[in-house]
Amino acid sequence: MRAAATFVAVVRSEWTKARTVRSTSWTLLLTFVISVGVGVVNCLSVKKAIEEGSSLVRADFHPADAGFVGVGMGQLVLVVFVVLLVCGEYSGGMIRTSLTAVPRRGLLYGGKLAVGAGLALAVSLVTVPVAFLASERALGSLAVPLDGPGVPRALVGAVVGMTLIAVFSGGVAVVLRGAAVSLGVLVPFHFVLPTLMLNIPGLRTIAVHLPTQAGARIMRVAESGDATLSPGAGLIVLLGWTVAATLGGYVALRTRDV
């Protein structure tokens, strides 16, 4: 009971820190705005292209999957949020004060990740369904309902995927420490490298096993003919990345000076 109470106290402390930092509310709000806004703009563009018979529309286009395009972009801001949350104390040296107050480094680390994961989950639970509904509304007659085939599973997958990407990024940020370095590594790793690798035949198989691509498979409704990962396999791969990053952050914080 004492260990549990101590962990609760650390989580409360980290939650207080998070909600008193202005960037927390702004980045979480921006996650929502970008997810919804990009999704709507994308679906309006696709609808117009289809109506005009444009050849630019992908052959594997599925109206349900179009509802998650904005969510994929919103993840970028969520990664920024988690990095700032975890690394904020390193820049000003406040991490030493926190470790003095909570000498058990694993406990402090767990508290930070718990708050980050909780906030990521909370914003995802709101963002994902709203972004999907808004995007589908923009598609008009092409839209699919929330209870369409495969949609409920994909909605849950999108929430889980966004949360796991956030936790993964938090673990990596603790390994790298500074926010600038972490973002300099994580943003290209999540949102640039996979796209480049997918266009290189020899690297495509590796690319689909990267965290964001595995997460994208979890929220995909339509099955593509060249899919390397099923949604279930994508979840397992993303969980593996998340566990590895979490353990890496724990070992880094426990074994080196701050």
TrEMBL record:
Q: Any stretches that span the bilayer, and where are they?
A: 26-47, 67-92, 113-134, 154-176, 183-200, 233-253
Q: Report the superkingdom from the record.
A: Bacteria
Protein name (database record)? ABC transporter permease
- For the keyword Membrane, the answer is yes
Q: Which keywords belong to this entry?
A: Membrane, Transmembrane, Transmembrane helix
